[in-house]
Design brief:
binds heme C, mainly alpha, about 0% strand, Cytochrome Bc1 Complex, Chain D, domain 2, about 50% helix
Length: about 120
């Protein structure tokens, strides 16, 4: 009985927790940038513009993160959807799911969204 209670009460709580974005600290952002260079730049490009050596050759080209965040094809300005795309991948494309920790995936989330924020294509930023 106690075990059931633990499963039903705490498990959803843990799931919800992992969906809650951690604070965007400079350390987390830097970690995301390092991970990005290691795991993502080959497709999405060093500048996040989708021009990675591999990204250009794909049937479905890698996403251009320098577009205004609201215009991202899957995430449409929603940071949790960015996290989900990294966590689950994008079906029927080369975008594979990531096995990195929650914290690392949030770090990557902030790092890719940063490309849109720092891009001169985003008006007013
Ligand atoms: C093998 C190439 C490849 C690699 C490596 C790769 N991606 Fe992708 N990514 C893609 C493709 C292809 C898409 C889907 C593009 C489309 O359908 O328009 C995509 C889509 C995405 C999206 C969805 C963007 C949107 O429109 O909302 C995010 C976020 C993303 N990738 C992040 C990452 C991160 C972070 C990494 C590194 C951990 C990574 N990708 C590594 C190819 C790649």
């Amino acid at each position: 009985m106690l075990l059931l209670a633990v499963v039903f009460i705490f498990f959803p709580a843990i799931l919800t927790l992992s969906q809650t974005p951690p604070k965007k600290t400079p350390e987390l952002l830097n970690r995301g940038k390092t991970l990005y260079g290691k795991y993502c730049a080959s497709c999405h490009g060093n500048q996040g513009d989708g021009n990675g050596t591999l990204g250009k050759k794909l049937k479905t080209p890698a996403s251009d993160f320098t577009k205004p965040f609201d215009n991202w094809e899957f995430s449409k300005g929603d940071i949790k959807k960015v996290f989900n795309a990294i966590t689950n991948g994008v079906p029927n494309t080369a975008m594979a799911k990531s096995h990195l920790s929650d914290e690392d995936r949030w770090a990557l989330t902030y790092a890719v969204v940063e490309f849109a924020a720092s891009s001169n294509k985003t008006p007013g930023k």
